[in-house]
Specification:
Chain A: GO terms for molecular function: oxidoreductase activity. The complex is a heterodimer. Chain A is an alpha/beta fold. Chain A is built from 14 helices and eight strands. The longest helix of chain B is centred in the N-terminal third of the chain and has 26 residues. Classes of the chains: A alpha/beta, B mainly alpha.
Chain lengths: ~290, ~575
């Protein structure tokens, strides 16, 4: 199994622990990753302003991966959703494709061959498989309740992303439970983290983040689990900002799925970058059992 | 005399330029921080001293060796560029030390130093060739290979030209001197101590035969005896101080090429002309150095070392302000940042050069030095600075260690305060700004967002209407057909008003009085589109408060692509605001 790894912009700059833990976990699961240094922004952040600019940016990435004959795995759900959308638009609109290719050709690239664009969770669930993951879990969590946050841009629009059942998704819950933790049912689990509006309408953005945190907490979760840098930053540094500026303390620290899985696999904690999270994950280790129950 | 005067003038200009430039590091500021010059100078001195006498000196030495001398950051990026730069920089340095400053360095280090004996004669040519090879690679890269986003400006032209002129004039000068008969005569007078005419003629024959001199008096073929006599005289009078010029292989080759014209060139004093060109080019390079790209010889090591020891968060704001201005002078316009820029693809779409970090550097320099920039120019720089995903790649790859990302953060705020609305503030590019809002004053943080909303949303009549019932005026018949992006084309037309979109929208649910906050609710926006009421559809706050979570679209029983239509309406609203709408 081999994929081009698409990191996007946030992970290398601000959520490095996601990259290092994902690499460590995928190594254990025998998934090979190829780095393509020429990758650029997926285009998601400019969609509000200019659709063609977004499609061009995505298409360039898709063309770069296609040039090497590789499918792509994204760690970020917004990158994933955007590139899926761009691939869809390029397929159905030949005029747009010609326009984009007119730009790409200047760099010796063309968008012709379709490639598979996958989110990391989807690769784990469909390609690696729950059984293989469970096999590698050395120290399953016990009595750990997790609120799995699905993230909008992977789930919807389902016609385009084809990630999971948009109304009742289960992939992420099953993956969380593969680590031995219990994935709780919570009322706002399919809602947005609030990140898309941070910087534009902070009040609204933080209101929505707070609602989600409260909902997860109410369902009895000790940690919230993410698989997207935007969601992670929102629940991590922005939750911290919320506590500081609004005085509300939800005490629901987010953990990236790769960190959670990595811990249960017995991967070195430094590699999982637990210390890089803004809100400390102090209690998490306490839920690890000493070995596999057979 | 002329040589000395021009040297002193060059040194004076260089010195004044240096003072002017360094003072600008303390006078100008990239961010808002209004810190008095005296405080910045004091902070810099304190910072330098406290670093030199602390364990940080180890880091400093490490940076000096790995980044300044070995230049590992360039090596990691591109091997060809590393070879190119090493050729130019190492060989030029060696030429400077051994040849240009020979009377201060070489003559003192080596008691038997003569520029005309080996190994010095050979080394000078070798170093010259190495510099030229480097310059050749630079020309190949910038003008033939021409990778996209590698921009070449007048400063790059100047740098290549000045290096090439110095090197080529040096080689030609050497060649002209090798073949020059008058030069031979003056050497005989100065060092030969010979009186006998025959002896001098024999020596001349020998030099014509063996050393490349072109003589008006003697010509090959030579008599064996004459040559033997010439060799004898040569070994007695010349050989100790003059190696065979064949060792100066580039000069010798240049001499061979020039030799058919040697006598006329000698008559017009060609070697003197070349000598003037050669030293004047060096002096111009020296005088202009603080104002040219070549200033990086001083500023790049400085930037690398300063950034090596200045920790984020721990440094005095006064020193950060000074460092950021200095960094603008440290930029070599190598374009590594632009080649790696994650927003590079947007540059090819928006064709605004300021999106590329290497080009932004020059614009920012003009901006902070108070140059008179037009509204349009400022607007372009602002857009360029905003269309940045803050991925930090530019900062990570910069061979001279400039912290570009922090520079952009400060410049962004400075520009936004100037008051021109920036549509891109209403995009997810704002996330980074939002995450660092604690570093920005509350009003300065919100103003640009309000201004952009005002420019995009506030212009539409909807906001001014006080009555509950909308008149069916302002219908744009073509509007419906123009909303044709992709698969959502006209899906709004089949909306039957069930309001599922509005009832599942988490944004709507967040407000007690959503219609007041958002102007129109999602189903109303769809309805406005169906009616062709453009001003209503693109003029509501709902569009800009949309999370793009796609819940509405996913749950619509009619398959209306609400979120995608929103995207399209936002694009159109921006086009209208910047005067590019239909």
């Amino acid at each position: 199994m081999k994929f081009a790894l698409f990191l996007g912009c946030n992970i290398p700059a601000r959520v490095g622990q996601y990259e290092s833990s994902a690499r460590a976990v995928l190594k254990k699961l025998d998934v090979d990753l190829v780095d393509i240094a020429e990758f650029n922004c997926c285009g998601y952040p400019v969609r509000n302003i200019d659709n063609d600019a977004f499609v061009l940016a995505s298409a360039r990435n898709l063309a770069l991966a296609a040039k090497q004959g590789l499918d792509m795995v994204c760690l970020c759900k917004c990158c994933f959703g955007s590139m899926k959308k761009a691939a869809f638009l390029l397929k159905e609109d030949p005029l747009l494709r010609d326009k984009v290719n007119g730009q790409l050709v200047k760099e010796g690239l063309t968008y012709e061959k379709e490639i598979g664009v996958r989110h990391f969770l989807s690769v784990l669930y469909h390609d690696v498989g729950l059984d293989n993951i469970k096999e590698k879990v050395q120290r399953p969590f016990t009595d750990l309740k997790i609120a799995a946050h699905y993230g909008c841009h992977a789930l919807r629009p389902s016609k385009i992303t084809q990630f999971d059942d948009p109304v009742n998704p289960t992939i992420f819950d099953k993956l969380v439970e593969a680590t031995g933790a219990k994935s709780v049912d919570w009322s706002l689990r399919l809602d947005c983290c609030g990140a898309p509006l941070l910087g534009m309408n902070d009040k609204l953005s933080m209101d929505l983040t707070e609602k989600k945190l409260a909902s997860g907490k109410q369902a009895g979760a000790a940690f919230l689990c993410t698989a997207c840098p935007y969601c992670q930053m929102q629940f991590d540094s922005v939750q911290k900002m919320i506590s500081k500026t609004r005085g509300t303390n939800h005490e629901l620290p987010p953990v990236i799925y790769t960190q959670l899985l990595g811990l249960s696999m017995g991967i070195d904690q430094a590699l999982l970058g637990l210390d890089m999270n803004q809100i400390r994950l102090d209690g998490l280790n306490g839920f690890l059992s000493n070995g596999k129950k057979n | 005399m002329f040589f000395s005067i021009s040297l002193y003038i060059a040194l004076l200009v260089f010195g004044l330029g240096l003072i002017y430039k360094i003072s600008s590091w303390f006078r100008y500021s990239v961010g808002a921080a209004d810190i008095p010059v005296s405080r910045r100078v004091a902070a810099a001195i304190k910072g330098i001293l406290s670093t030199l006498f602390s364990p940080k000196i180890v880091t400093l030495i490490k940076v000096l060796v790995l980044d300044v001398v070995v230049q590992q950051k360039i090596l990691r990026q591109d091997k060809m560029r590393w070879v190119m730069h090493m050729c130019i920089y190492l060989a030029f340095m060696l030429l400077l030390l051994m040849h240009a400053l020979e009377q201060y360095i070489s003559a003192n280090l080596f008691s038997d130093y003569y520029s005309t004996v080996n190994p010095f004669m050979f080394l000078r040519d070798l170093f010259g060739v190495i510099v030229l090879v480097g310059a050749g690679v630079a020309i190949y890269r910038r003008f033939i290979l021409k990778p996209p986003r590698l921009k070449t400006n007048s400063m790059d032209h100047y740098a290549i030209i000045i290096v090439a002129v110095i090197m080529v004039s040096g080689i030609l000068l050497e060649g002209a001197k090798i073949i020059s008969h008058s030069r031979f005569q003056s050497m005989v007078e100065e060092y030969g101590d010979l009186d006998d005419e025959d002896e001098i003629a024999a020596l001349e024959s020998f030099w014509v035969a063996e050393y490349g001199v072109v003589s008006p008096n003697v010509k090959a073929p030579f008599d064996e005896d004459v040559l033997a006599q010439g060799r004898e005289t040569h070994e007695a009078a010349c050989a100790d101080c003059h190696t065979n010029p064949r060792w100066a292989f580039t000069g010798y080759a240049a001499g061979k090429i020039l030799s058919p014209m040697a006598l006329s060139l000698d008559k017009i004093g060609f070697s003197d002309i070349l000598w003037y060109i050669h030293f004047l080019a060096c002096f111009i390079g020296l005088a202009y150095l603080p104002f040219s790209k070549m200033f990086h010889i001083i500023t790049s090591p400085l930037s690398l070392m300063v950034n090596g020891v200045m920790a984020k968060g721990g440094s005095d704001p006064a020193n950060i302000a000074t460092r950021q201005v200095m960094e603008l002078d440290a930029c070599t316009h190598c374009c590594t940042c632009s080649l790696n820029c994650s927003a590079g693809a947007f540059y090819s779409h928006f064709s605004n050069e300021n999106i590329l970090p290497s080009e932004k550097m020059a614009s920012v320099k003009a901006l902070i030095s108070g140059k008179n920039l037009s509204e349009k120019q400022i607007r372009e720089i602002q857009e360029g600075v905003y269309v940045c995903t803050n991925c930090k790649r530019c900062t990570v790859v910069c061979p001279v260690g400039i912290n570009l990302q922090d520079l952009w953060f400060n410049v962004r705020e400075t520009l936004l305060r100037k008051g021109q609305p920036e549509p891109f503030t209403l995009s997810q590019l704002s996330y980074y700004r939002g995450s660092r809002k604690e570093e920005i004053a509350a009003a300065a943080y919100l103003d640009p967002l309000n201004r952009a909303r005002q420019a995009i949303v506030g212009r539409h009549e909807l906001k001014k209407r006080k009555d509950d019932v909308l008149a069916m005026s302002g219908i744009d018949k073509g509007f419906r057909d123009r909303l044709n992006l992709s698969d959502q084309a006209n899906t709004f037309a089949v909306c039957f008003g069930c309001e599922t979109c509005t009832s599942v929208c988490p944004v709507v649910a967040n407000y007690d009085n959503p219609a007041e906050e958002l102007d129109l609710l999602p189903h109303q926006v769809m309805h406005s589109c169906a009616l062709g009421m453009k001003s209503l559809a693109i003029g509501s706050n709902m569009l800009w408060d949309c999370l793009t979570c796609y819940r509405c679209q996913e749950q619509c029983p009619q398959g209306v692509c609400i979120t995608d239509v929103f995207y399209e309406l936002k694009n159109e609203a921006v086009r209208v605001a910047i005067g590019k709408g239909v």
